Amino acid sequence: MPAVDQLVCFALYAANRTTTQAYRALLEPWNLTYPQYIALVTLWNDGDQTVGSLGEALQLDSGTLSPMLARMESAGYLTRSRRADDERVVSVTLTDRGTELRTELAHIPQCIAAGSGITDADSARELIDALHQLTEAMKGLRDHPDEVRDADAARHPA
Prior knowledge:
Layout: H1 8-27, H2 34-46, E1 49-50, H3 51-58, H4 62-74, E2 78-82, E3 90-94, H5 96-104, H6 108-116, H7 121-143, H8 145-155
Antiparallel strand pairs: 1-3, 2-3
Helix pairs in contact: 1-6, 7-8
């Protein structure tokens, strides 16, 4: 077994924690969390969403998403309303204040990029592509662990 600092999983964990801490420091003046920020980014870029589509986009379950949206609604950043045509569906819409935050928080991506040491768009794109590939591969392991384990055992018989 390699040392912990030689494990891909630990490198990802440490990078994730440190990045989240950087976002926490940058977002603190607005009393926003990183998940709240990415919800705002999604709403700014994609417009109104249902709670379901927002949860899917952010990869958050309703048990995490609903309380977060309630806090954002209390802060005046968005509204939630049941659709008239199907009351089971809840729509999420930015308020004027939520829309104004886009300008106030426009510096955040540049701060994160500068802090990460990524200096050009090509390097950023390469990292993003590699992370997307890793995410998809790990979904395969998550969804079919026995198949991956069996394939590995076939390649490395005891």
